[in-house]
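FAQ
Q: What does a multi-component entry look like?
A: The components come first, one per line:
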Amino acid sequence: MTQRTEQGTHLTGPVLVLGAGLLGASIGLGLRARGLDVVLSDSSPSTEAVARDIGAGRLLADARAAGERVSPELVVVATPPDVTARVAAEALLAYPDAVVVDICSVKEAVLRELLATPGAAAHASRYVGTHPMAGREKSGPVAARAELFTGAPWVLCAHAGSAPEAVLRAESLAVDLGAVPARMSVEEHDEAVALISHLPQVVSSLVASRLQDSPAHALSLAGNGLRDVTRIAASDPRLWVQILSANAGRLVEILYGVRDDLNRLIGTLEDPTAGGARLDMAQLMSEGNSGQARVPGKHGTPPNSFARLTVLVDDVPGQIAKLLTEIGHTGINVEDFRLEHSPGREVGLAELSVLPGRRQELTESLTRRGWKVVQ
Amino acid sequence: MTQRTEQGTHLTGPVLVLGAGLLGASIGLGLRARGLDVVLSDSSPSTEAVARDIGAGRLLADARAAGERVSPELVVVATPPDVTARVAAEALLAYPDAVVVDICSVKEAVLRELLATPGAAAHASRYVGTHPMAGREKSGPVAARAELFTGAPWVLCAHAGSAPEAVLRAESLAVDLGAVPARMSVEEHDEAVALISHLPQVVSSLVASRLQDSPAHALSLAGNGLRDVTRIAASDPRLWVQILSANAGRLVEILYGVRDDLNRLIGTLEDPTAGGARLDMAQLMSEGNSGQARVPGKHGTPPNSFARLTVLVDDVPGQIAKLLTEIGHTGINVEDFRLEHSPGREVGLAELSVLPGRRQELTESLTRRGWKVVQ
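Then the predicted structure of the entire assembly, as tokens:
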């Protein structure tokens, strides 16, 4: 039976999730944790079985076999991009009382295909395209977690014909999973992700591909710079081919600009002592500084909003616990904590982030207690 | 008075450090922590005063004013790349009993210029080019720390005329600062850093520069992918112009390959439904996968040598300390620890890295103690 959301803010279920990979199973886990009835389906029987086994929901196939007629208030299409529009169109027809959302990472191509699907356009008022800005380098339901969306932006792209009620229900999904809803048009969304997601992805892959045949002694010198730049090059090619194809026009416009800058840099490096060469290089680096300074920190906090200090920790069991117990005694909240140590070495570095106003106080307090604060 | 190293393994000092920025001051701090006499000099009076004040060494200017004739066993040239060869040549002439090393991040250009400096070539047996693979996004002596080099590779590039004794003394510097010496030729070094350091730097800057004029709503969606790819775009343009100029020939060869791949990708994205377009994209992504898999983990450990698990932590004071105390009770060593939480949210995620064989045991142990292990 279809149920309306209470004051438009919370889902009451049932929710049907089509596609039980990382995102679909994470949505199932998150909604199950709120006590909602979640029904799952995936084209792969083993994927949907794993999703059921980890507690992401019960299976649509089982419900049907038991003669139940599932009537969801919300259908979440969490399939690969290529089939998203088709599955969403089918869901609009199959569940005439449900709101249908998809969570595909490109939005205009999906909407266009959906509206062009015979029979679906008449039902499109119940459709809202969405995109949770969350993911992992791992895929599949095994990697799913209920908390995947906590604190992350969740874009809602209502189209001209979306019913306000449908948009509210889509927003409830985001809110119920702990995400922060952000409304924008499909065009705004696709331009934004071309820049902040698809550009870094292809550039990371371009850099990493250069490493394929490099000598081992070169790679043994690699530091955090290379590690960070190439981390997302580990992403799934099958998924990314679909994403890049669906947003090709917007990404290529950005890549023209990258190519212009790259050609300018190559020209400069071919004759590094020429007049103006150093100025050209300095300008590229400075433009990079300016752009980098605009990237928000974790959880949408402004860049560099926390102050860091580093504490030396002997690499013996219990030392980290002792440090954190004593930080607890100071009453100062640690916003981020990172421990680094080399296996076999005697000392580790604990990096603590605190509000800038508390840094000095924490440094003094820890120093008094005998800790070596190195920075 | 010049002192020989004991069995060629440890420095005994004095050590003269020319250039008191991040690296010079860190070397001073590290050697002072071993009890060595460190003498500092910098072309900027305020820089050398700060370095002295943080305990990185005493000042050459003060020693000279007191009538002392400083006679170092080792001179470390830690100046910007542009003046490294000149300063090293002067040091070889000024301190005829000292071994002279530099720590510049390009090696062939420095060696070539040094050997071409009138009078210096005759003393070049006492010169060894080196490069510690350590640094920070911050610069200046204020950011210095004695532990900067701990566990990091330190490349030693002996040239054809370097005396074995000089190489041993350079190696002692690396070892005394906790680094791991790696011997290679200037050519091998410069090719390696073009690939693992200069390439990611310029590409990070190219991506970040695209963000300069982007709308704020786009940047508000940014995730860890963009953050990681653009982090090093915050680096100092003045320093990097010198580095890029000095290794321009090797870097540009790599960038030709990047340009070829970028052009292929642009062609594919211009006509994403053409035959072979998807295969082209998949190939780029797969090549990125292969290259990324070759990047070693932190501290030179093989990629993915640790297993991770994530624990939910209530955001109240003392919870992290409690978690780490209880992990201490399990006797399982945590190799890396990272806490993430959103300001204002009720829950944080603590990510723990352990040896893969201990993951299951730790998960079960923490679950028994009432912790929610989500992965």
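Q: Is there any commentary attached?
A: Sometimes. For this entry: Chain B touches chain A through 132 residues (CB under 8 Å).
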